[in-house]
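Help wanted!
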Amino acid sequence: MPNHSNLDPSGSLVERFLIEPIATGPLYGLDFTVKDNIDIAGRKTSYGNPTWRDHHHAPKYNALCVDQLLAAGGRCVGKVVADEFTYSLDGESQFFGTPRNAKAPNRIPGGSSSGSVASVANGVSDFSIGTDSGGSIRVPASLCGVWGMRPSLHRISEAGVMPFMPSVSTVGAVASSYEQLNSVIRVLLRSGGGLAVPLQRILVLSDAMEIADKSVRAAAEVALNDISSRTGVDLQTISFAQIAGDGASLSDCNENALRVLQSLEFQNTVGNWIENNTPEISNTFSMAYENVRQFNRYEAMNCLDRCERFFDAIQALMTCGTVICFPTTPVIAPLKNTLNSMEAVMDFYGRTMNITAFSGVGRLPEISAPLLTVEDCPVGLSFAAGHYQDEFLLSAVKKMLGW
Amino acid sequence: MPNHSNLDPSGSLVERFLIEPIATGPLYGLDFTVKDNIDIAGRKTSYGNPTWRDHHHAPKYNALCVDQLLAAGGRCVGKVVADEFTYSLDGESQFFGTPRNAKAPNRIPGGSSSGSVASVANGVSDFSIGTDSGGSIRVPASLCGVWGMRPSLHRISEAGVMPFMPSVSTVGAVASSYEQLNSVIRVLLRSGGGLAVPLQRILVLSDAMEIADKSVRAAAEVALNDISSRTGVDLQTISFAQIAGDGASLSDCNENALRVLQSLEFQNTVGNWIENNTPEISNTFSMAYENVRQFNRYEAMNCLDRCERFFDAIQALMTCGTVICFPTTPVIAPLKNTLNSMEAVMDFYGRTMNITAFSGVGRLPEISAPLLTVEDCPVGLSFAAGHYQDEFLLSAVKKMLGW
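Answered by r_m:
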């Protein structure tokens, strides 16, 4: 169990406290933290923005996912930093600071579940719960070298979680080991063993490999070849155009489909609140929000059909027994204070979200495993399975790693 | 197109206005209304409670589902009554009145999408959008004799829809004809044609037939036998115990699973707000809420596992090509002012929700078709298909009715 000092060199904690478990169970003996867009009874939820925190009462109830963890034996040790309105992938919060990337301290941790990942990577907690819409669990897990999972869309209850992008957002978790991630996710999924389907097919998403830096791609290839040898299952390379037809690319999947849907939904949730409450917002968020605000809802409407068409195509591909693999992020964590030019931002966000959009559009469960090292920095290797095949994915990853 | 007078003998409208379509499309020429828990830009959303309305700003954006309808050619003609916090199945609102049950004016319309259904049944609009968690579209559609559909959980965007029970609530629609319902739902699902799977199997859920009044059951049997003759597909009777094993019943599915999950989630959404804002609430809602408030979250936690186990069992049953049928409600609409004893309330809610819980736990799409008449009053016959098989269900129902 991690050691709790009063200081927090991890920079991950917004508030430190102890909520003891309600019962023993599979998580007994494990400490967890909660991203600050998930309710803890009696404490205000900031959603990464001080005005939001000040304008809302403290909830009476814990989010349902928090109660599930307490009832399974987990102990809650604090609330951790979220990027502002969880609308970022970098983890540099003007209001709550930048949590420490334990394995690469001069680099950003990634976001928006920056505090969740940093609390685990720095030993403040064993695991943490967060949320993921455009990569908010997967990206910081990749950049900080911990395990992270975004389950199938809406498999975990969102009761008590701040509204964000209802057609895309999920609750998920990060942990310091596969075993802990597996235990936590199974509690949250509240499932039995799930189907005992054998691993039949390993696909490699070629577009994502090409988007990645050469060094990341090379590291991923080595790891994937190991997995193939270990399991005796051949790797089959497949492109997004082969999956979705019509010359479609991952960039269509991101820029012309998922990102538009996300922006439309963000207008409804946080956008309505901002327009009516004119909160103090950071410069970074202000620029991002200006883009959201300028989306013309009617011009953007046909992106919804595109999302659904891509979903159907991915659904047809991801039959049970199939896992698809790709680097979680195309890069190692950028150095701090380098995402300050439009080109740098566009490069990091554009390439990263072209990869993360695949599971977003597909509503897929995806696990980022801390298997790669490039320039002494961690990068995740991702494994995704079909929609609602979360239990199969958990078992398949274990098998692929020979455990 | 319905005739719009200044008066509203339907009692369905909260506010009358016109929002012209943005484009022509499959819904061009059709008028629709919007349940008052779904945002309309520039107008306050009441959620069926005046204090909620007064404590919240008017949204800047329409809910995404409203914009989808406008972009497909629909014209919005007003906001319609919702039961208080949509937490009721009777449609008698202390604050906004009881919309008229057009085919049985001395009887309740059912709720919580009471205004949606009444606006269609009384010719105020061609169709309406509402929400359904425990039957809030299906029940009033059944009791008022219109078409209604609850799609698969989360198939339609909930951006701009008031938070209710995140693991159960869906956006859906009611319409005066199958053709209109089909057009509206396909716009909202934003799907292509969907899979062209033939109808292979018609199941009849025996527990639901037994829960229904004898007269309702008899009418359902006649209609189902007609469907079997027309399609040449035999009816296969199946009980919930055969589906879920362990002697499970629909009452377990409702009382020991779905209803508990609903109560836990309602504590997080509306409950937190009520505890912090002490709104004026009606006597009826006050009694219902007191039950919710008394749920012990930790004692109730194992209901989540039961929900998931039932979901898995239903999922295994509802292979593609399968439709399961049952009366939407066990009764015709109760007479007004008769749900005023605890026994009467328990009988109506208990039996009704034992039936509606099936698709709730199964996350299934369900269509209530106005096919039955008992004592000169309408009752719906329901058809459900597997999770995410919405397009198949729409096609299968058309075929079953010989259209």
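OP: Thanks! One thing I noticed: Chain A has three domains: 13-189, 201-249+304-400, 254-293.
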